[in-house]
Design goal:
The protein is of the alpha/beta class and about 240 residues long. It is built from eleven helices and eight strands. Helices cover about 50% and strands about 15% of the residues. It has an eight-stranded mixed β-sheet with strand order 3-4-2-5-1-6-7-8, sandwiched between helices. A hairpin with a 2-residue loop joins strand 3 and strand 4. The longest helix is centred in the last third of the chain and has 25 residues. It is globular, with a radius of gyration of 17 Å.
Length: about 240
């Protein structure tokens, strides 16, 4: 199962969701934001090298605590040398080896996001409770469906505690509009602290309720995975 984590707008927390979803799904996380990577840096070959043909995909995967990551380089030259046409082959190879892959997509609706969505079996949309982020999530949904990539789940991220009731109502509306199970992830200092360490919340603050939210998103993905398996079996 290959899952693309996308949303359109920058700064909504796609990398945070990708890292934590990778932990909950026991998946390899691919930092596919070729120009502004946010996941932990590696110590050897990275996605730039893989997409440029300088390294095999499996050789670039590193373990960061409980999560395996294929990190991305930080140089403009590396991004320019990367052949996005190779991304489907790379994630397919990782899926054969590890079973599940989570792709951390960049912001925007540029050609690289389309390539990543097309490479995935399902997508998780990430948004915040702001109009601009919700509009971009809708646009990303349209791109995904045009590419025949179903939406497995939606994450309403960075919901503040003082507006909990309002966010619950908003989540219900988002779920109806986007047509996928929607999970609210509360804004917590533990989330920022964990990302500063490059680790999932569950491994830094096990008692934080945000871990339960990410687990809920993972269960939605697994249900989509099960439906896909049944569909393939029927065919």
């Amino acid at each position: 199962m290959i899952v693309a984590v996308a949303g359109g707008k920058g700064g909504v927390g796609k990398s945070t969701v990708s890292l934590n979803l990778g932990r909950e799904l026991d998946a390899v996380v691919v930092d596919a934001d070729l120009s502004t990577a946010d996941l932990p840096r590696g110590h050897g070959a990275d996605l730039h090298d893989v997409l440029a043909g300088r390294s095999a995909p499996l050789d670039a995967v590193e373990s960061f605590g409980q999560v395996r990551i294929l990190p991305c380089g930080r140089t403009l030259a590396g991004a320019r040398a990367s052949a996005l046409t190779e991304l489907p082959r790379v994630v397919d190879r990782l899926e054969r080896e590890f079973g599940r892959v989570v792709i951390d997509c960049p912001a925007g609706l540029a050609r690289d996001v389309g390539r990543q969505l097309e490479s995935a079996h399902a997508a998780v949309l990430v948004t915040t409770p702001t109009e601009s982020a919700l509009v971009d999530a809708l646009r990303t949904r349209a791109v995904a469906l045009e590419l025949e990539t179903p939406i497995a789940a939606v994450v309403l991220n960075r919901a503040t505690a003082d507006e909990a009731d309002g966010h619950e109502q908003l989540a219900a509306r988002v779920e109806r509009k986007l047509g996928a199970p929607t999970t609210t992830v509360a804004e917590r200092p533990a989330v920022d602290n964990a990302m500063e360490e490059g680790r999932p919340v569950r491994d830094v603050s096990p008692d934080c309720d945000v871990s339960d939210a990410f687990e809920s998103v993972a269960r939605s993905v697994e249900r989509c995975e099960g439906n896909r398996s049944v569909h393939i079996g029927v065919r």
